[in-house]
């Protein structure tokens, strides 16, 4: 019989002394996972309640105007995204009443009557030419920040409130033409109104 190598004995002894890894404590792990899921659900519920509360506070905002039956021939059209509305000049003061806080796809149409805002899956609305105040390019609205000039911001009057609504075209280069057209319309309307008086 061949004698064992001198090192074989300590290795065999070491292997015999090694224990298998402890079995995972499943009840503790499941408890942690359930606790984490409950915490996430609570945070989501609180956010939803905050959204509803904000909508209640803005309950004095009149219903949104709807597009007339014949708004006229389109001067400009735009496909893109609606990023939200805020109190004019306060880019973080989001307006959620009447669905204005819901981000969505958007189809904008500018006519002589005003701005038609069609939002699949959200409330459509119409901004009459008399309510349009100004347009500009900016980088943020309602907590959404893009590159400088990445958003088309339209300021309009609704009830006794001035509102900024933010849009982003699928083709960002066309937004400058929208700013020019909207500001020309508001200037023309202001001049016409002043002459009428």
Index terms:
197 residues; 7-stranded antiparallel beta sheet; 32% helix
Describe this structure in words.
By secondary structure, the chain is α+β, with helices and mostly antiparallel strands. It has helices at 8-17, 26-57, 175-196; strands at 76-87, 104-111, 114-118, 125-128, 132-138, 140-141, 144-145, 151-158, 161-169. A seven-stranded antiparallel beta sheet has the order 4-3-2-1-9-8-5. The termini are far apart.
**What spatial order of strands do you see in the largest sheet?**
4-3-2-1-9-8-5
Structural class of the helix and strand makeup? Answer: alpha+beta
Would you count the extended β strands for me? Answer: 9
Described by the principal axes of the CA atoms, the overall outline is: elongated
End-to-end gap:
122 Å
**What's the tally of helices?**
3
Largest β-sheet summary: 7 strands, antiparallel
N-to-C order of helices and strands: HHEEEEEEEEEH
Percent of sequence in beta strands: 25-35%
Could you tell me the radius of gyration in angstroms? 30 Å
Low-pLDDT runs = none
Helical residue percent band: 25-40%
| Average of per-residue pLDDT values | 82
């Amino acid at each position: 019989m061949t004698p064992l190598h001198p090192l074989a004995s300590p290795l065999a002894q070491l292997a015999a002394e090694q224990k298998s890894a402890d079995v995972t404590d499943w009840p503790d792990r499941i408890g942690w996972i359930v606790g984490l899921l409950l915490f996430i659900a609570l945070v989501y519920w609180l956010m939803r309640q905050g959204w509803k509360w904000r909508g209640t506070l803005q309950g004095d905002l009149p219903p949104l105007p709807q597009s007339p039956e014949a708004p006229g021939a389109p001067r400009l059209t735009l496909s893109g995204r609606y990023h939200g509305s805020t109190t004019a000049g306060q880019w973080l003061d989001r307006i959620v009443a009447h669905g204005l806080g819901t981000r969505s796809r958007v189809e904008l149409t500018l006519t002589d009557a005003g701005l038609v805002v069609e939002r699949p899956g959200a409330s459509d609305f119409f901004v009459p030419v008399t309510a349009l105040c100004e347009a500009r390019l900016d980088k943020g609205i309602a907590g959404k920040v893009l590159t400088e000039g990445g958003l088309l911001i339209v300021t309009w009057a609704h009830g006794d409130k001035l509102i900024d609504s933010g849009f982003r075209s699928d083709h960002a280069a066309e937004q400058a033409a929208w700013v020019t057209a909207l500001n020309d319309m508001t200037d023309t309307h202001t001049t016409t109104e002043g002459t009428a008086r």
